[in-house]
Each structure stands twice: as structure tokens, then as C-alpha cells.
Amino acid sequence: MVAEQNKWLWFSDTQWVENPLAEEDYDPQAEKRPASHPALLRAMELHRDGHDDEALIQLGAAEEDAESRADALGLAGQILFEQKCFEEASESYRKLAEHSPDHPTAHFNRGVSLARLGQWRDAVECFQRAAVAAPQRTEVWFGLGVSLLHQRRGAEARAAFQQSLKLRPEHVPTLAGEAVALQMDKKPLPALAIYRRLLGEKAEAPELLANALAVAVELRERALVREWAAKLLRADPRSRAAWLALATVAIEAEDFQAGSECCAKLTENAPDCFEDWYNLGVCYQRLERPEEAFRAFEHAAGIRPDHAGTLKALAMLAIERGDVEAGARYHKALGGVSWEIAFQLGLLYQDKGLLEEAAEQYREALRRKADCVEALINLGHVLQGLGRQEEARECWRTAVQTRPDVAGEYFGKS
Question: What CATH superfamily classification does 1-117 receive?
Fold first, then answer.
């Protein structure tokens, strides 16, 4: 921002706080003027020598001079931005824009400062004003597009990126931004075309690969998922985007061995993620590895204790291994709403000779599913074992009336 020539320090109105394109060269001859106020001159010297806090004090004095106010506010914003004091930098640029409404960089610089604060709505407004003040600058349109993406305004973001591409057609970050806007606008095919082009020609940044993977997964382009995930894992062996993409396509293809390996990696890298443990449990279930499935679902339940799918899986797995207490506990945590679990608990209690408990569970199953003939038949046997013959016969009569085909087949074999 500062240049020295014949002992005068100069400002350039077209120098930006931060250039998101990172390739625009600073032209030291552009729109220069000498620093006018002694305090401003001293502030520039202090800034050059790395004494920024003292420079800011001098700039406070220079702001009082009408002729130097714009330059003082601009340099203060620059120093504050470099100090990562983005809120204060934003305020300095707000004052600059208020003082000089047509200033070519004030709105843009404030927009960048607000973006660093995550204040995307206000950043959009600043970049829109900057586009009026300097429509020939690619940075303006790029900053606007990025801010609109953060506002989930995909169509508007794409329009901004297209304006930037008119000025600089092959700029990779802008093309990548357009691809994300297309994804957001539910247009994965043209987004994929952009990613194919970028990943075929340009440096493969991890962020670019991660976004590309999301589109490839959505479109079930499994070969591309494997190719791009491999590239991403070479750059970052712990990449969540890569392992998640590989897990997703493996599970969709019912390759539960590969899916379990990917999910295991995910749980290793992010042990507090519910979805990863749950998916790992599903894979182990499908691989008929019940103990590992149970442990995975227990981890999932520790993160989200009220998740119905997890509690149901734990209840069924507990019943399968004969742990009636755990099965009943998880079913109770589920709210006792599953007729399947109640029925399976009834079978387990019955097998263990706990007939009263079995009868209670069969009745619970029937409350949830009145036409469950199997529960009616088994309830009849339990009641018979308890010496309650008339109740048992009533259950069997109801079974025959409810599903004559099933009940008839059962009693025919009995």
C-alpha cells in the first residue's frame, strides 16, 4: 500500500486490502498523490518500520484534517486488517465510504473485512456497492459471489461469478465458485463438467476435490469418486470428504466390507460423529458381525441417546445374543413402540421360561400390531403354560379369525 519516491510517501487509491484472486499486480504509478498531513506522513513511516500501534495514534490525529481524512482512514483500515482486527478495520472503511462515497476501494475493503467476520449479509451489500464503484475489477465480482454462496443464494452467486469470468475467463477459484453455485442450485451435471475440466487441467486443491467429490457421489459416478478420493487422500490421509465419499458409494453398492473399513477410518478421525458410528454399525450388521455392530451402535447411542434407529438396532442385537435385560432396557428407552422388538422379547422370555414377562411382551406387540397372528398364537401357548386355558383358546380363536391362512397353516402343522 505504501511506496516511497523522492522522500514523499504515496497512496494508491486502487490498492486493495486483500485480493482474493491473489494474482493482480500492484501498479505503483496508479493514481498517486502525496501524503498531505505531517501526522499522516509520520504514521506511514511508523507503519513501514513495523510500529503499527503508534501509527494508529498518528492516524487518529490525521483524521481531523479534512484533506487527509480519506487517506488516514484507508491506512488505518489497512493496519487494522493486517492486525486481524477485522471489526475495527470494517468500521474504518465504513467511515471512509461515508466520507468519500465514490472511493474506489472502500466498499470492497469493508466487504472483505466483514467476510472475515462471517457477516455475509453485510458483506454482500458492500460488494454490491463496490461493483458499482469498480465494475471492471474481477475481485469485486468474485467477493460478491463468495458472499452470496455463504448466504445460500446460489443463482445470484453464479451470476456474480459469471461477471468475474467475463473479465478473467480461466480463473480457477471463480470457476470453482460457479461449480459450487450450480451444486447449490441443484444442477449437479454442469457442476460436474466444470470439476472434470478443472481437475483435468489445474492444480488439485483439497477444497476443490472435496466439492467435486460431493457432486460425483450425488450422481453416483463411482469411478470418479474412487479416483478423486484417492487424490485427496494422497494430499490428506485423514480427509473426511474422501473417506465419507468412499463409504457412501460402497454402502450404496452393498459392499459392506469396504463400507465398514471406510466408516472405521471416519470414526478413528472423528470419534464424536454420530453418523459415522451408526453407519459402521449398519455395515457390521449386514456383514453378520453382531458383536462389532453392537459396539458401534453403543458408541452412536452415547452421542445421540434418543436416536430411534440406534436404540432399535441395540435392542434387536441384544435379543439375538440372549441378553433379555439389555433388550428390554433399550426397548424401554425407545418408548416401547416397536412391535417387532416386543415380539422378539416375548420369544426370548418364553424360551427362558419367564412366562408372565413373555405374555406382557406379546400383549405389547399386539397393542402395536393387532393382526400379528404369531403373537396371538404364542400368547396362547404362554397362557396355556400358566394354566389359563380359556384365555389361551380365545387367543387361538382370534388368530384364526384374523388370519385364517396363517393360523390354519400353523395349527395344521401342530
Answer: Tetratricopeptide repeat domain (1.25.40.10)
